[in-house]
Design brief:
This protein is an alpha/beta fold and about 290 residues long. The protein has eleven helices and nine strands. The chain has helices at about 15-25, 40-45, 75, 100-105, 140-160, 175-180, 195-210, 225-235, 250-255, 260-265, 270-294; strands at about 1-10, 30-35, 50-65, 110-125, 125-135, 165-170, 185-190, 215-220, 240-245.
């Protein structure tokens, strides 16, 4: 089984637009949206939810007002100031460390499993999709990413499908690392801006550190030719394939508004760029497979 993850060094580079276009190409695949902090792939995929599961992770302190003597030890020892003067726990500040539970002399505090969001299994026009959404301010997105990927892999095995296409999180934090483990290829989407070029270099350091084969796609390539050329030189210096350049086009925004991939909205224009990118991805996967069996 092979897994391709589409990532970017920063948000807003067009990562999800690229992934939704790739979803319409190639062999049957399972889709996984691992951008759980700001999921948006569903806006294009129009998923029909078949299964919904609560995501429980970590713990949250609860104070029983009838048992509480208001001795103040919990407030004194809480380093996160999560307990107010009325001895109520502020959920957004509680880290679930349970120190208050251990110091409470009256046993008025209990630790409860923490509900952080949902994960889903849905059907789309491009196949089964596993996706999720954290509640606002909720944490443990890395663990939720792992949950999504594990479910996607199990579904792929059950359906006899050999390809998983994953929409990863932007940046280099825990959710991205969770998205990249055991991945066959990372497709890094960058745009020619100073911030994006800097973040591209950081995310490439991450994929290199974990030994994950990578390739680069330049989106909005014609908005700054000199920076696009810098990205291409960077790819050459790092011995990474430049999988393609996508021009800036208002059609991409129109496709998003209509809930379509760019290959569906403009098959003979932007769709051709995506076909070439897919061919480059397949060549990279084939080369890596040959190298691993040599």
């Amino acid at each position: 089984m092979q897994e391709i993850v589409v990532i970017s060094g920063k948000g807003g580079t067009g990562k999800t637009s690229v992934l939704s276009a790739l979803a319409s190409l190639g062999p049957p695949k399972i889709l996984a949206d691992c951008d759980v902090d700001a999921a948006d792939l569903h806006l294009i995929m129009h998923p029909r939810i078949q299964k919904r599961q609560e995501f429980i992770s970590g713990e949250l302190a609860r104070i029983d007002p009838d048992a509480c003597t208001q001795c103040g030890l919990c407030r004194e020892y809480c380093r996160f100031d999560a307990i107010d003067e009325s001895f109520r726990v502020w959920e957004q500040d509680c880290e679930g460390c349970a120190l208050c539970y251990h110091v409470c002399p009256s046993g008025a505090i209990r630790m409860e499993p923490r509900f952080n969001g949902y994960w889903y299994v849905s059907e789309t026009r491009f196949g089964t999709m596993v996706h999720a959404a954290l509640l606002p301010g909720a944490e443990n997105s890395g663990k939720l990413v792992t949950t999504v990927r594990t479910e996607a892999r199990e579904i792929a095995e059950d359906q006899g499908i050999d390809l998983i296409l994953t929409d990863g999180s932007p940046g280099i934090g825990c959710p991205v690392i969770a998205s990249l483990s055991r991945t066959n290829l990372a497709v890094i989407v960058a745009e020619p801006t100073l911030a994006a070029v800097s973040d591209l270099k950081r995310v490439q350091e991450l994929t290199s550190y974990f030994g994950i084969p990578s390739g680069i796609v330049i989106n909005k390539a014609d908005i700054n030719d000199s920076l696009s050329d810098e990205i291409e030189r960077f790819a050459k210096d790092k011995d990474l394939p430049l999988l393609g350049r996508i021009p800036y086009e208002e059609k991409i925004t129109r496709a998003q508004i209509e809930g379509k991939s760019i290959t569906e909205y403009d098959p003979s224009g932007l769709g051709e760029y995506m076909h070439r990118i897919w061919d480059g991805i397949q060549e990279r996967l084939d080369a890596e497979q040959k190298a691993s069996t040599a």
